[in-house]
Amino acid sequence: MKSVLVTGAAGFIGYHLCERLLGEGATVVGVDNLNPYYEVSLKEARLARLRRHDRFEFHKVDIADRDAMEWLFEGQKGDFIVVVHLAAQAGVRYSIKNPHAYIDGNIKGFMNILEGCRHRKAPHLVFASSSSVYGGNAMIPFSVHHNVDHPVSLYAATKKANELMAHAYADLYGIPCTGLRFFTVYGPWGRPDMALFLFTKAILEGLPIDVYNRGNMRRDFTYIDDIIEGVVRVMGRAPRPDPRWDKFNPDPGTSSAPYRVYNIGNNRPVMLTDFIKVLEDCLGRKATKNLLPMQPGDVAETCADVDDLMRDVGFRPSTTIEEGIPRFVDWYRKYYG
Q: Which residues are tagged catalytic?
């Protein structure tokens, strides 16, 4: 039986995508190395929920392990109708502390994914990119038609490299590839290194929260269900070469190869101080704020132009923080008691 391969299946977005696909009757092969970047017990708890489905098959594999990935793509395990690549070393600030992890996971690992798709003639590769690729761009909202050649973190550079690598394989071997630039994802089962998780934990424990750039930041916070809806819709639409693409005036958002890139963001940036206020209201407690300067690799504002996503798959994220934050808080209280 043909299946969907999801890398990073024990991760935040990967877990939610697997749950959605399994709920719709798909057969899913999940891959994750369960690395200790954040608490492994949370990843194992996500996996335990996925293992309730008899159509879920899990392999503890590091995508940077070439031999293991070749084995995964060989034989019956290679009959994937779609490959969704979500595994990566995440985190802008951590890329400054441990840059080699990003080369191993995000460059070497992605190379193995591309080679697997090439040899098994995968019908469609959907892979995670990031809003971080916009780097030093000041034009808001960020559009896939903008130039993204000025990353301000190694993490962003590896994600930009992934987009370039995928385009090369789409052009050379005709592999349909779709890159998805996610914008500040949050929600239940989220990552403990992300702001909402860190803030919630600290406020409930009576500890101060670190607020960078003294709160003068705007983020396009995107609820997890909106992210998953966008991914699922894109999965069913393998890109084709754009006959209108002009090599004398090349558009970064399209291509003469079967390659596309989309933003998935809420298109409504929120001040960090307003985000904290909604969280305080949900928790019934005030935060003690430790106001700090901007961190290296950060940007002051993000905002997604999602016109291409709406045009091609008919979807635009719409969940507000007033809807999404309470759902996260409810999950957090239940999970951590």
A: 155
